[in-house]
Design a protein that fits this description.
By secondary structure, this protein is mainly alpha-helical. Helices cover about 70% and strands about 0% of the residues. It has a two-stranded antiparallel ribbon.
Length: about 375
C-alpha cells in the first residue's frame, strides 16, 4: 500500500514537472528574439509596400523597372479600352516644359516687350512731339475711307482690343487683377472674358478678311515706298513729306504685319477652340523637313500640338499688341488729323496732300474726269 501511494505521488510530481517545463518553454518562446507570427506578418506587409521610392517587391522587384518608367516618362502610348485613345499616354513630360515656358520666359519677355513699346512711344512723343499739319488746317476735306471700310476696320480693331485684354488677363490677371478686385469679382471677369474671347475670335477673323480684300491692292510695294523709307516718312523731321499713294510704306508694313500675324493667331486660336482636330505644327514640321532637310519632331502627339498652339498663340498675340500700340499712337495723339480718317472718314485736304500727295492727285483726277463727263452729256 505504501508503495502504491509513493508511486501515485511520483506520477503527480512528474506531471507537475512536465507542466512547469511546458510553462517555461512558452515563456521562453514569447520573450525570445526570434520574431513572432504577428511580427512576421507585419514585416511581410511592409516589404510589399513602397519604401523609399521602391515599389512592391512582388511586382517589379525591390526597385522600379527603370526601362518601363523611362518609356512612360518619354510619352510612350499604351493601349486603352476606352474610346479616348489619348488616355493611353500615362505621363506627358512636355507638359512640364510647356508650363515652365509659359509662366516663365514667355510671361516675362512679353511684359518687357509691351512695356518697352510704351516707353519707346513716350520717348518719341517727348522728343518729336505731335506731328502737326505744316500748312495748317485748310477747312476743306476729302473722303479718305467710306463707311464700309471704316466698318471693317473698327470691327477688327474692337474685337482685337477685347481679345487682347481678355488674353492678357489669362496670363497676368492672377498677379495684377486678382489682388485688386478679389477672387469673386476676378472669377466673374475671367469667365466673361473667356466667353468674349471665344466668340469675338470669329469677328476678328471676319474683320481680317474684310480689310485684306479691300486694301491688299493698295498695299503692294512700289518704288515710291523706297523714297518714303529713305527719309523715314518725315516722322523725325519737320517739313519733310515724301510722296505716297493711299497707303505709305509705314502703313503697308503695319498692314502686312496685321494680316500675317492675324492669320497665324487665327490658325492657332482655331486649334485651341477645337482641340485635337488639327495638325498645323505637324504638317508644318513635315514640310520644313522635306524642304530644308531639318529634323523637326514629326508627327506630334495631339497634346503636343495643343501645347505648341498655346505658346505660339501667346507669342504672336503679344507681338501684334506691340505693333497695334504703335498704330494707335500714330493714329491718335501722335499725328494731327490722322484720327479723322477712321473717325468721320473725311480728312483735311492739307493733311492729305502732306502725307498722301499721290493719292490726292488720283482722287482729283477721277473727280475732274467725272465732272467733265457729266458736263459733256447733253441736257434732257
Amino acid at each position: 500500500m505504501f508503495q502504491t501511494v509513493m508511486s501515485g505521488r511520483g506520477i503527480q510530481v512528474r506531471n507537475c514537472l512536465s507542466g512547469f517545463a511546458a510553462l517555461l518553454l512558452a515563456i521562453a518562446f514569447v520573450i525570445s528574439p526570434e520574431p513572432s507570427f504577428a511580427q512576421q506578418t507585419r514585416d511581410t506587409v511592409q516589404q510589399e509596400n513602397p519604401v523609399e521610392g521602391q515599389v512592391p517587391g512582388n511586382t517589379l522587384g525591390e526597385a522600379s523597372d527603370t526601362d518601363l518608367w523611362r518609356d512612360i516618362r518619354h510619352g510612350v502610348t499604351g493601349n486603352v479600352s476606352i474610346p479616348d485613345k489619348k488616355a493611353g499616354t500615362l505621363v506627358q513630360s512636355e507638359g512640364e516644359l510647356w508650363r515652365s515656358l509659359r509662366n516663365g520666359p514667355l510671361a516675362l519677355y512679353a511684359s518687357w516687350a509691351m512695356l518697352g513699346m510704351i516707353v519707346l512711344l513716350c520717348l518719341f512723343f517727348a522728343i518729336r512731339g505731335r506731328i502737326r499739319i505744316d500748312h495748317g488746317m485748310s477747312g476743306v476735306t476729302i473722303t479718305r475711307f467710306n463707311g464700309f471700310e471704316r466698318f471693317g476696320h473698327w470691327m477688327l480693331a474692337t474685337s482685337f482690343i477685347v481679345l487682347a485684354l481678355s488674353g492678357l488677363n489669362v496670363m497676368y490677371g492672377r498677379y495684377l487683377l486678382l489682388p485688386l478686385i478679389g477672387p469673386e469679382a476676378f472669377g466673374f471677369v475671367t469667365l466673361m472674358g473667356k466667353y468674349l474671347h471665344n466668340y469675338l475670335a470669329f469677328a476678328f477673323m471676319a474683320g481680317l478678311a474684310i480689310i485684306f480684300i479691300m486694301w491688299v491692292r493698295h498695299n503692294l510695294p512700289n518704288r515710291t515706298d523706297v523714297k518714303w523709307v529713305l527719309v523715314a516718312g518725315g516722322l523725325f523731321s519737320k517739313n519733310v513729306h515724301p510722296p505716297a499713294k493711299k497707303f505709305n510704306a509705314g502703313q503697308k508694313v503695319i498692314f502686312w504685319l496685321v494680316i500675317l500675324c492675324g492669320v497665324s493667331i487665327s490658325l492657332s486660336g482655331w486649334a485651341l477652340l477645337f482641340p485635337f482636330t488639327t495638325h498645323f505644327f505637324s504638317d508644318t514640321f513635315v514640310l520644313a523637313n522635306n524642304l530644308f532637310g531639318t529634323e523637326l519632331p514629326a508627327p506630334l502627339a495631339p497634346i503636343q500640338e495643343q501645347q505648341l498652339n498655346s505658346l505660339w498663340h501667346s507669342i504672336m498675340a503679344v507681338f501684334l499688341i506691340c505693333v497695334i500700340l504703335a498704330h494707335i499712337y500714330i493714329g491718335s495723339i501722335g499725328m494731327e488729323g490722322a484720327f479723322d480718317a477712321m473717325g468721320s472718314g473725311e480728312v483735311d485736304l492739307n493733311w492729305a496732300k502732306e502725307h498722301h500727295s499721290l493719292w490726292v492727285e488720283e482722287v482729283e483726277q477721277k473727280e475732274s474726269g467725272a465732272a467733265s463727263r457729266g458736263a459733256a452729256q447733253p441736257a434732257e
